[in-house]
Design goal:
The protein is an alpha+beta fold. It has helices at 14-19, 59-65, 68-84; strands at 27-30, 34-38, 46-52, 93-95, 111-115. Strands 1-2-3-5-4 form a five-stranded antiparallel sheet, with helices on one face. The structure holds guanosine-5'-monophosphate. Guanosine-5'-monophosphate binds next to strand 2.
Length: 128
Amino acid sequence: MPVSGLGPYDPNNIFARILRGEIPCKKVYEDQWALAFHDINPVSPVHVLVIPKGAYVAFADFSATASAEEIAGFIRAVGTVARDLGLEAPGYRLLANMGEDSGQEVPHLHFHLFGGRKMGPMLTRPLT
Ligand code: 5GP
């Protein structure tokens, strides 16, 4: 079910539980600001999720309220993960769903990092 609107942060969402180590993940990177791990249901040969360590529901509250340090740290981590995975030469796609229309399912900000194949068009037609 997509998340609807930007409710308060749910500390028991699945990614919060992964951050606390309560649920395992296939970790690819971690630093002070971010954790990156393989998506459980990949749609490309490389499908990694990068999440900030702070409690942010989505890009909306992160971009509006995170500190400059948190934003810089998180964005740099995304770039580091892509580089470390060898995706800079072939290229990759970054995607962040935000809210109901996007289909966001997990209410903790995450960037999807897709690589390892031609990505094709950004959105499928017809637009509905
Ligand atoms: P969203 O639709 O919110 O942008 O993407 C959520 C993503 O989280 C999906 O691609 C889904 O496969 C992934 N996901 C959901 N639950 C888990 C989990 O427990 N572990 C991992 N590694 N990925 C998950």
